């Protein structure tokens, strides 16, 4: 998806639509929130004339991230 898109969440969004628009407001995508669990992050993809949002679940691992050697 091109840079410059802004995701606006409407207050009390459970049953209200969302709006995604570019900064110049030339393009707009509207959709409806669905109960998808506790995920707060979404992968947005453009398919034809529709914008599809997939929930992303983030794993919280307390282990240190792997460090790779470098020069």
Briefly summarize what is shown:
With 71 residues, this protein is mostly beta strands. The chain has no helices and 5 strands.
Number of helices: 0
Which class do the helix and strand fractions yield?
mainly beta
Largest sheet, spatial ordering of strands: 1-2-3
Q: What do the pLDDT scores average to?
A: 66
Based on DSSP secondary structure assignment, what is the total number of beta strands?
A: 5
Keywords: DNA-binding, Nucleus, Transcription, Transcription regulation
Main location: nucleus
GO molecular function: DNA binding
Subcellular location: Nucleus
Explain how this protein is built.
With 71 residues, the protein is mostly beta strands. Helices cover 0% and strands 41% of the residues. It has one domain (5-56). It has strands at 5-8, 17-22, 28-32, 41-47, 50-56. A three-stranded antiparallel β-sheet has the order 1-2-3, with no helix packed on it. Strands 4-5 form a two-stranded antiparallel ribbon. A hairpin with an 8-residue loop joins strand 1 and strand 2.
